[in-house]
Amino acid sequence: MGNTRINDRIVSDPHAGPPRMSDVARIAGVSKMTVSRVLAGHSVAPATRERVQQAIDDLGYVADAAAGALSSGKSEFVAVLVPSLASSNFSDTVRGLSAALEPHGLQILLGDTDYDLAREERLVRSMLRYQPRCIALTGSQHTEGTRQVLERSRIPVVEMWDLPANPIDMAVGFSNSRAAREMVRYLKDRGYRKIGFLAGASDLDRRGLERLKGYQQEMKAQGLGEPRVIRFGESPITMSHGAPALDALLGRWPDTNAVMCVSDMSAFGAIMQCHRRGLRVPADIAVAGFGNFEVSICCNPTITTVSVDAYGIGSRAGQLLLSSVASGTPRAVPERRKFTIDYTVISRESA
Amino acid sequence: MGNTRINDRIVSDPHAGPPRMSDVARIAGVSKMTVSRVLAGHSVAPATRERVQQAIDDLGYVADAAAGALSSGKSEFVAVLVPSLASSNFSDTVRGLSAALEPHGLQILLGDTDYDLAREERLVRSMLRYQPRCIALTGSQHTEGTRQVLERSRIPVVEMWDLPANPIDMAVGFSNSRAAREMVRYLKDRGYRKIGFLAGASDLDRRGLERLKGYQQEMKAQGLGEPRVIRFGESPITMSHGAPALDALLGRWPDTNAVMCVSDMSAFGAIMQCHRRGLRVPADIAVAGFGNFEVSICCNPTITTVSVDAYGIGSRAGQLLLSSVASGTPRAVPERRKFTIDYTVISRESA
DNA sequence: TTGAAAGCGTTACCAC
DNA sequence: GTGGTAACGCTTTCAA
């Protein structure tokens, strides 16, 4: 059985390609179901289990996950979308998600939206084809199409890094604007009054825009005069954006004595540029960043910044998705939930 | 047809959950096959196509990719493994792969080995369950199990960032040791003789080890005396590792006047520490990095480094995989190929 | 140009 | 504890 006579030769393996579950079953002298049970860890007589395992090892059998998913109606995918892989805070968030989800056998489908909402929609649509169990997005801004297709999919959704007014399902994040306001107050408390802000040029980075908004609001609230805003550089904001932005700021408002940056990356670039211009930080000009990236700790001077638990956002999001998947919470019941992640202004040498 | 009488009410949709291809077919008044053809872009009468498309849109139908893959025997997955997501060179490589593969409808399954070969093997085994069309690994070191399971899978494999003596299938990379040797010569040409090297502590980062080996070889070849090696910090080497490593180096060999680092990250940390110690770079001590990361351009002083086209490694690997998948090149024919990526020593201010 | 039937490799369900 | 059978949702193949 299983043997075939072709051109007068006995061929023991009737099919090409990798071994199937039926091959394992045949070799082990059991049915496919028993093989399936061994693989799933269900109860099987020890002796049988051993024979099956032996056959699996001999053949180098690897179960086809797609077939399994189709049959059981349950995939093991989780779709995850971040604006940029190159940004260390988002890769930390992905690590957090991964740490939470991997132990449960879930496989992450990772997508990089490049801060482009249309691209996000394309990726969401494309990933939905794999029937993911749940999905994690970054930010609260999405196209109408994205929202619609997610609403229809009925799977758990978590939005990260923001606290949307009207979340699709769940959200894990913090108020970027309030964090920026806190930094303004910190600088004011240290005696700085002429405070500038280096933001990105595009409106795609909503979290960056929120920080800018917070800065503007608090400058007004504290009576610190007209905001001094430079908008320069495409998202993601990198170190290279800091120097030209600083130059622009000092070109326009030469008496500025403190600079808030939308990210530690540009803060670092700005500090290096200060040094090149012969300005001491913070004696001549203070510089503050955002994100508590590694560079803020290693730079000389160390950089005052807002610390955000990026990894924690990911692992919290992962936990929420897990419990939501487990309980099968129907989204139709609008049990929308927001979860706040802490942030702190960390006082260092630069401001 | 398709309607069911339940509790005296006519229910038009006989099943729960998301719409199926048969639902679309029913609504459009065609067979499943016609829907399938519309989706695949095969020839269908314009009027029919329009009706089908309308039904798809109305229902918000999303084809199940797993079912399609099972039926056609062809998945759309590519497995990609990198040692660390946080490292910008690997995320650049992933972007390069993504750019090459995405236009062909291939979906990347990304895994993070954390510089752990056993974890790599687990991930490879796990990803193989999704029947990927091909796989990209980082480095030339793998467990016996990894090699075996890949050999058996018979799918195209590309190893990146190294040039293995005996590649599994294809390889895209460069000689890390030769690049390091070139940097030693560069420093010697600039008049430096007392050259130290800051390496990582663990042997997991094979590319780092290769660089260290190259340094040692060239120090000997050039008659530059005993190597001055500090091994400190777990992979991935980060900015924070630079300062303590530099301290250790100067503690042990106080007259060192040039420092090569396994990465721009530690080079940056070392430079900041030099400043803290009151040492001018490069007047008192030269520092060179590796990788041409953004920080090497933005730092003051700018950092002399080895530039490697990380994105190019990814896109080249992607192209190789594509053509290998397209041609169905059987690996049994040992048509093993290695592809070299260029690197250059970039002279900047720090050395 | 379109449709019907037969799988793809697995798991759920129900017998034994 | 184990096995047979019928799906799962799609594409391939072949026929109309």
UniProtKB/TrEMBL annotation, chains A, B:
Statement: the UniProt record of this protein carries the keyword Transcription regulation: yes
Source organism, top-level taxon: Bacteria
HTH lacI-type domain ranges (all copies): 19-72
Keyword Transcription appears in the UniProt entry: yes
Keyword annotations: DNA-binding, Transcription, Transcription regulation
Pfam family, one: LacI
InterPro entries documented for this protein: HTH_LacI, LacI/GalR-like_sensor, Lambda_DNA-bd_dom_sf, Peripla_BP_I
An example Gene Ontology molecular-function term: DNA binding
Protein's recorded name: LacI family DNA-binding transcriptional regulator
Naturally occurring in which organism (per UniProt): Paraburkholderia kirstenboschensis
